[in-house]
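User: Hello, can you help with two protein structures?

Assistant: Certainly.
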Amino acid sequence: MTSAPDYSQGIDTERALKFAVQRIRGDRVQIIEGIIEPVSPTWDHERAAKLVRRQIERRVDELGCVEGSGNLDLPGSSNWYVPDIAVVPEDLARGGSALLPDQTLLIVEVTSESNAETDRVVKRRRYAEYGAPLYLLVDRVDGSITLFSEPQKLGYTRVQGPYPFGAVVRLPSPFDLDIDTSGLVRTTA
């Protein structure tokens, strides 16, 4: 009788998990603290992301960057994120697959009822730990928007907000522009 192989020794589980996730066909997925989660936003979720994207597009182009929802790897952890919007330098986006949070200029996450706590707590902590300079949380569940900046290993040291939808939120340098949130709407349960 043959025994099952012992995979507990010599296997890089982080690498294996991330390799597998990149090969799932037909669906976009992310890994949150070791749990594979499909990325399937609703149209209202996409609408909220679009409202932010439209306001930053011109400045993103001026900065020689690209905005999109490409993969972000968090090496040394069991995390592989697909943000709603990430702004990255065009030279890194060209030919790139996964980038690191500290290679972004801005990350935007839009909450849904199914992932609000993940975006508010887990992703915020991990984005800070991995050096994402600006994290904009569009919280459709609470009807608020918060900007986190000045990342450290234990979290962001500067927080602006939460501001209610309808407020204007200033994105600092290198963006130096205001985000009008009057078009954003709170989700209803």
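That covers the first. Now for the second protein you mentioned:
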Amino acid sequence: MDYRRSLERSRLSRMRRAGASTFTMLEREWDLLPGVFAPSDSPSTAVALDLLGLAGPSPSARGSVLEIGCGTGIIAVAAALAGCERVVASDISRTAAENAALNAARHGVADRVRTVQGDLFAGLDPEERFDTVFWSSNYVMAPEGYDYQDIHERAYVDAGYQAHRRFLAEAPGRLAPNGSVLLHFSSRGDLVSLLRIAGECGRALRMLRVLPVQEGEHEVQHMLIEVAQRPQRPHVPGIRTETETVPEQGRRQR
């Protein structure tokens, strides 16, 4: 159970989705372009919607949202349908950004959902700020030197958690006053490494929700984690201070 299993899932998904198609989620039809992560091939998108409170019969949301790694745009569109006034959907894949725009138009929220192509925050205007920054991450860690065979693999694994490090370091700088950075992670990821990287970036992690999901033979813990600036505390000789973090749960990968 390592990153190679996730890469195999990526390969099989590409084979199944060779052409443009549609799928159903949230009792709606969605466009899926070739080469874009298919939410119907993994539970992660449906779980993310549940963690964010966007999966119920009458979801309600406000303010502005930035979604990183938007894929088909389901989460961004669902946030706009729930009441968010401004949503930006970003993806490293140009095809995914186009796919998200198709679904925003399909569901009548193109006036509130803007799609951009870029690696994490690269496609944004420098001054843009948001009430919520959200990423349903590619939480399985591949070796640091792994060479991606195609952009589709980036939806499944993160080499050396380089993208996670950049997200933890840069996301709080994209917040409006009183905003929140939210990360969808999983027990199939390496939580110990995530905690270490957060500490190195000066971030504190706080668990907001945990949702157990049966995936094949394994129960996987999906987590909604808030990323915050670690408070600076005065050092008092002889007294050890603690920073609130997510409890360490050991390393597990799919």
